[in-house]
């Protein structure tokens, strides 16, 4: 019983860290890219991952966590897949309108549910599906402004959805099957993610922005924001692995849409972005959907725990029955033997 409150506290802490760090880094990056004119998103992500790996390596050297020896082939493929998915998402944003890009992010939840149902045989109740539908409608109202389709952009979006979903499912699966913590998995996979983005990032950014990251003139304030962004990214990457490992890829995506709503709110308050009644209605609907999802998840977890306890109790009773039966039999046998001895 003592493990359950500790586990729930860990989940709440991971969720809070994920939301706080993600909203912080979005605001920091928005200031860096929009206000200071540093548009190299993919290259910046590669720096994030390199700083994350260096931080974890220092923590490992200080014995703050133990590195576990695991098969590097799946970890390497996993790291490369995650790096490719980040690049594809950035390319999708470059080739599509903001509205279509938001629709791409919305499609990740139903596609994740589909993949988990087909390949992992995971069951989602009708209530969970309903709450996810309400959530997606709300986020769609709040964030999707226009839909401009083009063939290349659509293909890139589909590839981004597939790689993102598979990467997040693998994050959960690898942690559970190989029995590694979120820190250990991130430490092992971060170098591969950083390498693929470090090589492809400048090319992707130059293709999208027509600017060269190496020819950019770095001012002191730009460098300060880049350093701040990299520091925050350590928490973002760590909490992402932590949340997916402790909950599920679908819950992580739901959390992602909560971040979207918070970013819209912070953008209006801090950065004075344009805000309409449509945004407000969409955010309220999305929050209602998130509330439903959280409520139904808690109810289903309680029901599952109750069933597990009931099954465990039945198994215990079943295991104890033969022993009692044997004791009764032995008692009866001893009584008969005693009677026989007395007759003799």
Give a count of the beta strands, DSSP E runs of length 2 or more: 0
| Oligomer classification | single chain
Mean pLDDT: 81
- Reading the helices and strands in chain order gives HHHHHHHHHH
Helix content: over 70%
Biggest β-sheet strands, sense, barrel: none
Low-pLDDT runs of 5+ residues are 323-331, 335-344
How much strand content do the residues show?
under 5%
Q: End-to-end span in angstroms? A: 57 Å
Morphology call: globular
The gyration radius over C-alpha positions equals: 26 Å
* Helical/strand content category: mainly alpha
Q: What's the total helix number?
A: 10
Subcellular location: Membrane
Organism: Populus tomentosa
Pfam family, one: TPT
Protein name: Sugar phosphate transporter domain-containing protein
Can I get a quick summary?
With 344 residues, this protein is mainly alpha-helical. The protein is built from 10 helices and no strands.
Description:
This protein is mainly alpha-helical and 344 residues long.
Itemize the secondary structure elements and their pairings.
Layout: H1 3-35, H2 41-61, H3 72-95, H4 98-119, H5 126-143, H6 151-177, H7 182-209, H8 220-246, H9 249-270, H10 277-343
Helix pairs in contact: 1-8, 1-9, 2-7, 2-8, 3-6, 3-7, 4-5, 4-6, 4-9, 5-9, 5-10, 6-8, 7-8, 8-9, 9-10
State the main characteristics.
344 residues; mainly alpha; 0% strand; disordered C terminus; TPT_transporter; Sugar_P_trans_dom; Sugar phosphate transporter domain-containing protein
């Amino acid at each position: 019983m003592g493990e359950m409150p500790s586990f729930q506290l860990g989940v709440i802490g991971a969720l809070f860290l994920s939301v706080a760090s993600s909203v912080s880094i979005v605001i920091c990056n928005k200031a860096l890219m929009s206000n200071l004119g540093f548009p190299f998103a993919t290259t910046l992500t590669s720096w994030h991952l390199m700083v994350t790996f260096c931080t974890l390596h220092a923590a490992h050297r200080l014995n703050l966590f133990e590195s576990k020896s695991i098969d590097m082939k799946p970890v390497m493929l996993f790291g490369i897949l995650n790096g490719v998915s980040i690049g594809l998402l950035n390319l999708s944003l470059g080739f599509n309108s903001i509205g279509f890009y938001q629709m791409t992010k919305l499609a990740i939840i139903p596609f994740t549910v589909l993949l988990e149902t087909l390949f992992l045989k995971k069951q989602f109740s009708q209530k969970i599906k309903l709450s996810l539908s309400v959530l997606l409608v709300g986020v769609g109202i709040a964030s999707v402004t226009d839909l401009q389709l083009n063939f290349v952009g659509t293909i890139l979006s589909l590839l981004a959805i597939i790689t993102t979903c598979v990467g997040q499912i693998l994050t959960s699966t690898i942690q559970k099957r190989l029995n590694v913590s979120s820190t250990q998995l991130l430490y092992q996979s971060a170098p591969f993610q950083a390498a693929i983005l470090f090589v492809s990032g400048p090319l992707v950014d130059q293709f999208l922005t027509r600017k060269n990251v190496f020819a950019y003139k770095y001012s002191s304030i730009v460098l300060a924001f880049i350093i701040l962004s990299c520091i925050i990214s350590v928490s973002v990457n760590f909490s992402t692995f932590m949340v997916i490992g402790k909950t599920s890829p679908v819950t992580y995506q739901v959390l992602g849409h909560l971040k979207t709503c918070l970013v819209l709110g912070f953008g209006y308050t801090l950065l004075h972005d344009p805000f309409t009644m449509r945004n407000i209605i969409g955010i309220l609907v999305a929050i209602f959907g998130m509330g439903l999802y959280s409520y139904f998840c808690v109810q289903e977890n309680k029901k599952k725990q109750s069933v597990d306890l009931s099954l465990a109790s039945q198994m215990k009773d079943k295991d104890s029955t033969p022993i009692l039966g044997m004791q009764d039999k032995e008692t009866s046998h001893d009584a008969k033997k005693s009677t026989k001895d007395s007759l003799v």
